[in-house]
Amino acid sequence: MLKTQITADCHTHSSNSFDAENSVCEMLKQANQIGLDYLTITDHFESAFYFEPDEEFGDLKKLLPQSVIDIRQQQSINTEKTELLCGIELGEPLHDIKATNEVLSLTDYDFVLCSMHNLRDMGDFFWLDYKSDEIPSLLKKYFRELCECVQWGNFDSLAHITYPMRYICDRSKIAVDFNDYKNEIDEVLSLLAEKEKALEFNTCRNPELSPKAIGKCRDIPYLRRFKELGGKHVTLGSDAHKTQDLGKGIGGAIDILRELGYSEFTVYRHRIPELITIK
Length: 279
Ligand SMILES: [Zn+2]
Ligand SMILES: [Zn+2]
What we know:
TIM Barrel; two-stranded antiparallel sheet; 19% strand
């Protein structure tokens, strides 16, 4: 990546997320130190646990307004290089649409991510036990639920589309072939492209990202296919849950996007896409 390249990390968590360590202030300080041009904080919202708090996620009705307050406060005093943006990670927004609508009215968000950590009536992919013969129906259900979210459409970028594979492939050592789910994946990606939504390149699991990793990184086939289907917007996010992970893999991801034929990536402000040229 060229030194003059504009950089952005648009998927990060502050201590207002149940599983993250550092304050908005600390994250912004680190972003300035490593020279990021844009930092978007996207704290966790899990729709099913908003009105009925769960021990794991904490009291989202308090945490999410606090996230907004902390971001606005830092925005008002930040005079350094990094532009701080206010985002949110909507987990399973359709599992409780009333909660989702309420949280989206908290502020004029810059950026809304949509993610799927668990399917309806199931635990987080993190907690599941996997058997090879059950994977096809599970993943087809996953892509179907993603499609429903894209149809709904009140978000800007689809986060970590390969989330289940972290646990199916990496932890349970069960291989998943992209081509076995091509129709289902095409449905999600073409709908995303048609609705002019973004696909996220989630870089946290890939700190060594570079064009040399193109054959190994499981997100590449999705990004390549998205482009073939007319997709234009790609957002970049380290998914950092602590300052040390901020910006990890972003430079390599930009290099990979260039190799895949993308000439821009996207940053959202007031939910309006801004195209950043890849040099
Ligand atoms: Zn997530
Ligand atoms: Zn996240």
